[in-house]
């Protein structure tokens, strides 16, 4: 068998960053120094501070190097051997299923896990545990864009074109995305766009470092993108700028979408969004007036209780102006986590089987059950979405196996989620560090990380990449794949051989399971990935070219057409009132990653971003009598968080912003509203009502 996992080669190993969806190419030297890869097209050598310092988290100073088991006598997590730890987990999961049935066990995964791990985790839940209760943190990420993309195009792949197309378009409408902080090396595509004479419109309630680059910055109230997009579409129609020929030839459903937009007059849109009508007209001039144009969305419009409809509205605008499926044009979503794309394709999602197949589809069940060597009828049906699953812990769910997420910091209404985790009969966490969620566990398993193991990830462009092992892991840690094999051996011995620890073997099976599905990896091999810059799915044929650009000839619906989805504006789940008069929105800063479990362990990053803060407008601060750096309390119906004030004229005076990277008193998610989008089940991280107080 071909293998690319040499242990500790003398030269630096070409691999990819452990963090975000850009998946920058990097080299890791035997002494663990990291450098950017000039030859990798996505980042051309550039790395952000997180990527540059990623090797710090490999150090045994900050990571877990042996299993921990909660002692019955001290109540504390104490060092234990691997056999004891694995036996304890198997016993905990077995007790739950014996007493309450298979759905009393739940599994929670992550979009940072490699394709192989995500695949094995989904297979483990459905064949070993036979539980329907599995979902993952990607539900909190781009699920609304995925749902809207499916509805419109019949297929969801974050970007349907490579990043290199961005500088070649005429206008980019960037909605609720702040790559200056969240994907710094990708900023190059926007500066090149401008150098080529293209224009950039940024839609964000804050004047971010990204918005500062824009030709036009629209700053709507949080949660009002839906109205904004409808207002732009209204003007496109009223000004006769819709592309009637494209609409006729390549789409269906225009009448309904058009009628809905016509009900959203610009003056009404101004009242709802706070964006003045002249700015709305300027945006339409730039966007509809450009020969080629793109709409790109990220978490701003997506993390709303109406995120799916909101993204549909932005897609409708792109369709009405004839963008998707044309060169250097279209709609795309910027995914977030390292494997945010692949992590949602191979079966850790509640309703899904590998290859982006539907768990409820009998043909999909038969195909995947065939690959797994089990009876299709033995596969459970779809389970609960991430927040609903976390909310059910300690209720009908009695035990949880968690891999690749830190919900104590990152889940909405986090104090409640923390209490649900504490109410479980049994919690097992596999992680590289002792995260805030691992601290609550009955057993913690220390696992290998990116530079110590091989696996594939799929970046925001749909480009499948090989992350290579560059270093030998410390003694005492094992890989997630080994963990699943050992648990299978204990819980369902006849299934153990279905859980190989060799990632290439898992990938071979994933290829077969995905064959014929929407996300078809059948033609992709490790050997091929080791040679080039990755392969874009779908790639059904061995050594086929892959598909960098989707939809050029047809969309993925049966009739080949894209569908308009008629949507109308509605308020956020929680609007400001007398008691909670201010909007809270949340997001990220450049030097910390997600729940901070990894990046809060890097000194250099902590110096750059030492703790939480509340960003507020000087006018709001003056009204409250709050000075720069002074602690303020932010109070919502869920709870109260305290952090220093950071004054900036770049935020709307009716809105405060908090980054969500920290636990403790400044935890933003103590405040957030778990109201869910009816289609994607995405919580409303981007808007809730709060009161701000001096402390
Ligand atoms: N440094 C860093 N980089 C990261 C991550 C990280 O944690 N840290 N995480 C990665 C992951 S998983 C993800 S998902 C991506 C996220 O990448 P982004 O989507 O770029 O990040 P966010 O900061 O969550 O949100 C983007 C912007 O949305 C704006 N916003 C808030 N409310 C609204 C609204 O109602 N409408 C609109 N239009 N905009 C709004 C915020 O002000 C913010 O500037 O980043 C990835 N990269
Ligand atoms: N308020 C607010 N909350 C948000 C968001 C927001 O914008 N606002 N954004 C949401 C979004 S988009 C996301 S993606 C989530 C992310 O939030 P989380 O799911 O908490 O993401 P991470 O902090 O990346 O957690 C990953 C955990 O897995 C561990 N880990 C890393 N690699 C591996 C591995 O290979 N195996 C195992 N077993 N463990 C590993 C890490 O050490 C870490 O503890 O947060 C969501 N929460
Ligand atoms: S931009 Fe993302 S992938 Fe690139 S170095 Fe930074 S965290 Fe890593
Ligand atoms: Mo994300």
TrEMBL record:
The keyword Iron-sulfur applies. One of its GO terms (biological process) is respiratory electron transport chain. InterPro entries: Asp_de-COase-like_dom_sf, MoPterin_dinucl-bd_dom, Mopterin_OxRdtase, Mopterin_OxRdtase_4Fe-4S_dom, Prok_molybdopt-oxidoreductase. One of its GO terms (cellular component) is membrane. The keyword Iron-sulfur applies. It holds the Pfam family Molybdopterin. Residues 10-60 form the 4Fe-4S Mo/W bis-MGD-type domain. Keywords: 4Fe-4S, Iron, Iron-sulfur, Metal-binding. GO terms for molecular function: 4 iron, 4 sulfur cluster binding; metal ion binding; molybdopterin cofactor binding; NADH dehydrogenase activity. This is Molybdopterin oxidoreductase family protein. It comes from Streptomyces xanthii.
């Amino acid at each position: 068998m071909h293998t690319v996992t040499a242990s500790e080669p003398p030269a630096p190993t070409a691999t990819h960053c452990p963090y975000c969806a850009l998946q920058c190419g990097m080299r890791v030297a035997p002494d663990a120094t990291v450098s950017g890869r000039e030859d990798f097209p996505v980042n051309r050598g550039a790395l952000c501070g997180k990527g540059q310092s990623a090797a710090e988290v490999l150090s045994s100073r900050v990571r877990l190097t042996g299993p921990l088991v909660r002692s019955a006598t001290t109540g504390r997590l104490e060092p234990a051997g691997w056999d004891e730890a694995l036996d304890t987990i198997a016993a905990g999961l077995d007790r739950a299923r014996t007493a309450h049935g298979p759905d009393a066990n739940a599994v929670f995964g992550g979009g940072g896990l490699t394709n192989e791990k995500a695949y094995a985790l989904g297979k483990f839940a459905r064949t070993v545990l036979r539980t329907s209760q599995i979902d993952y943190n990607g539900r909190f990420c781009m699920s609304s864009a995925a749902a809207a993309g499916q509805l419109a195009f019949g297929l969801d792949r974050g970007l349907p074109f490579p990043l290199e197309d961005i500088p070649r378009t005429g206008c980019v409408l960037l909605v609720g995305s702040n790559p200056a902080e969240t994907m710094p090396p990708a900023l190059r595509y926007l500066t090149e766009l401008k150098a080529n004479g293209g224009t950039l419109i940024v839609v964000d309630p804050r004047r971010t470092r990204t918005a500062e680059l824009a030709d036009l910055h629209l700053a709507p109230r949080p949660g009002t993108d839906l109205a904004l997009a409808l207002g732009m579409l209204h003007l496109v129609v009223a000004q006769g700028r819709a592309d009637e020929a494209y609409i006729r030839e390549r789409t269906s459903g225009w009448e309904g979408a058009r009628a809905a937009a016509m009900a959203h007059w610009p003056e009404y849109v101004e009242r709802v969004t706070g964006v003045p009508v002249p700015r709305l007209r300027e945006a339409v001039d730039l966007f509809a007036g450009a020969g080629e144009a793109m709409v790109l969305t990220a978490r701003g419009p997506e993390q709303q209780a109406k995120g799916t409809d909101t993204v549909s509205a932005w897609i409708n605008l792109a369709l009405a102006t004839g963008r998707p499926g044309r060169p250097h044009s279209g709609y795309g979503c910027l995914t977030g986590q390292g494997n945010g794309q692949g992590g949602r394709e191979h079966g850790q999602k509640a309703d899904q089987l590998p290859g982006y197949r539907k768990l409820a589809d009998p043909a999909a069940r038969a195909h995947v059950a065939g690959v797994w060597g089990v009876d299709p009828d033995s596969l459970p049906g779809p389970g609960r979405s991430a927040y609903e699953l976390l909310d059910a812990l300690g209720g009908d769910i009695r035990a949880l196996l968690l891999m690749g997420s830190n919900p104590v910091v990152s889940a909405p209404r986090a104090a409640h989620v923390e209490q649900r985790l504490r109410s479980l009969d049994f919690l097992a966490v596999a992680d590289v560090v002792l995260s805030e969620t691992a601290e609550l566990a009955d057993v913690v398993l220390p696992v290998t990380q990116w530079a110590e193991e091989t696996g594939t990830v799929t970046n925001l462009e749909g480009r499948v990449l090989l992350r290579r092992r560059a270093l030998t892991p410390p003694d005492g840690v094992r890989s997630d794949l080994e963990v699943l094999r050992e648990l299978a051996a204990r819980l369902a011995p006849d299934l153990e051989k279905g859980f190989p620890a060799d990632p290439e073997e898992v990938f071979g099976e994933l290829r077969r399971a995905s064959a014929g599905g929407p996300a078809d990896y059948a033609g992709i091999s490790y050997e091929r990935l080791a040679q080039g810059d990755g392969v874009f799915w779908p790639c059904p044929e061995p050594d086929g070219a892959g598909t960098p650009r989707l939809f050029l000839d047809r969309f993925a619906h049966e009739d080949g057409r894209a569908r308009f989805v008629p949507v109308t504006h509605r308020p956020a789940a929680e609007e400001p009132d007398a008691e909670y008069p201010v909007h809270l929105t949340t997001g990220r800063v450049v030097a910390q990653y997600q729940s901070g479990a990894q990046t809060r362990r890097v000194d250099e990053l902590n110096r750059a971003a030492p703790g939480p803060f509340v960003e507020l407008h000087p006018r709001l601060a003056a009204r409250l009598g709050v000075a720069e750096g002074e602690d303020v309390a932010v109070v919502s119906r869920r709870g109260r968080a305290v952090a220093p004030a950071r004054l900036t004229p770049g935020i709307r005076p009716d809105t405060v912003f908090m980054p969500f990277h920290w636990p403790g008193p400044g935890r933003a998610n103590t405040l957030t509203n778990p109201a869910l989008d009816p289609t994607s089940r995405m919580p409303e991280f981007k808007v809730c009502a709060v009161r701000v107080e001096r402390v």
